[in-house]
Amino acid sequence: MADMRLIVVGAAGRMGKTLIRTIAGMDGVTVAGAVERSGSPEIGRDAGVLAGLEPLGVTVTDDPLPLFAAAEGVLDFTGPAATLEFAELAAQARIVHVIGTTGLSDADNDRIRAAARHAVVVKSGNMSLGVNLLALLVRQAARALDADFDIEVVEMHHRMKVDAPSGTALMLGEAAARGRGIDLGDHAVRSRDGHTGARRRGDIGFATLRGGTVIGEHAVVLAGEFERVELVHKAEDRSIFARGAVKAALWGRGRKPGLYSMADVLGLSDD
Ligand code: NAD
């Protein structure tokens, strides 16, 4: 089969550059386009050079339309507003949309669900194999240990990250809530400050650390009486997310439209 033609949007970002390097180094996929926001100083540059490689002959542009018409997939690690625009374009072009962007609201997710009626969308707060396995383990642990065990999700990321708690932390909280058979929205405590009162039984707490260049560290703590279980993941390089995103695009090729998760791609859905 011919190489899958992929567009990288947010091409000059931390993940965008990693995606370009990853696609260029993989068989079966090719960089078919690179998009940045209007006004970006990187418009007009070669995408390969931008990512620290030899020239790829792909120029960074702020006009996604013609690219979407000629490609098979788009890898999107940008921001919520941009991702909603790309979801509409991907639905119109009926190409695979892999969404890594985090910080999406419920209303944003509704619009993505609507776009997924027309195109294959794979969306995950974390595209790495390790974190998706961790989510499965968290779900099992939360199911096995009752609400005598308090669940807290602790995360740390680099100083430039703009949303909190991280998409991965929320994904792990969701996994814990599913294991317990409860709704995360009713039990999430996303921050604590001042006189908070005692911890409510069954709540799922989040704690956020920001600093330095940390790519992403997550721990799910299940704290019971006199014992504690901790499930931990440490990302050491952004390429783990990029490889997962490419894998998701290849998996989505030729599939019927719908909203899928990375657990579907990796065969880790246990229900
Ligand atoms: P970043 O700020 O380095 O990159 C985002 C890029 O998107 C920027 O270059 C920005 O100019 C570009 N952009 C914004 N609007 C655009 C538009 N309309 N058109 C084209 N480009 C546009 O951020 P980052 O660290 O690369 O992270 C990006 C997103 O991916 C964040 O939401 C982050 O949380 C998420 N992320 C997800 C995973 C995962 O596995 N799901 C992993 C890492 C990061």
TrEMBL record:
Keywords: Amino-acid biosynthesis, Cytoplasm, Diaminopimelate biosynthesis, Lysine biosynthesis, NAD, NADP, Oxidoreductase
Taxonomy, superkingdom: Bacteria
Record's signal peptide: none
All copies of domain Dihydrodipicolinate reductase N-terminal, residue ranges: 4-127
EC number: 1.17.1.8
List of residues binding NAD(+): G10, A11, A12, G13, R14, M15, E54, G100, T101, T102, S124, G125, N126, M127
Keyword field contains Zinc-finger: no
A Pfam family of this chain: DapB_C
Main subcellular location of this protein, as a coarse class: cytoplasm
GO biological process, one term: lysine biosynthetic process via diaminopimelate
GO cellular component assignments: cytosol
CDD domains xrefs: DHDPR_N
InterPro entries with a match to the protein in the record: DapB_C, DapB_N, DapB_N_CS, DHDPR_bac, NAD(P)-bd_dom_sf
Compartment list: Cytoplasm
Catalytic residues in the record: H157 (proton donor/acceptor), K161 (proton donor)
Positions contributing to (S)-2,3,4,5-tetrahydrodipicolinate binding: H158, G167, T168
UniProt GO molecular function: 4-hydroxy-tetrahydrodipicolinate reductase; NAD binding; NADP binding; oxidoreductase activity, acting on CH or CH2 groups, NAD or NADP as acceptor
Catalysed reactions listed for this entry: (S)-2,3,4,5-tetrahydrodipicolinate + NADP(+) + H2O = (2S,4S)-4-hydroxy-2,3,4,5-tetrahydrodipicolinate + NADPH + H(+); (S)-2,3,4,5-tetrahydrodipicolinate + NAD(+) + H2O = (2S,4S)-4-hydroxy-2,3,4,5-tetrahydrodipicolinate + NADH + H(+)
PROSITE patterns, per database record: DAPB
The Dihydrodipicolinate reductase C-terminal domain, residue ranges: 130-266
Subunit relationships: Homotetramer.
Function: Catalyzes the conversion of 4-hydroxy-tetrahydrodipicolinate (HTPA) to tetrahydrodipicolinate.
Family affiliation: Belongs to the DapB family.
Protein name (record): 4-hydroxy-tetrahydrodipicolinate reductase
Species, as recorded: Prosthecodimorpha hirschii
GN (gene name): dapB
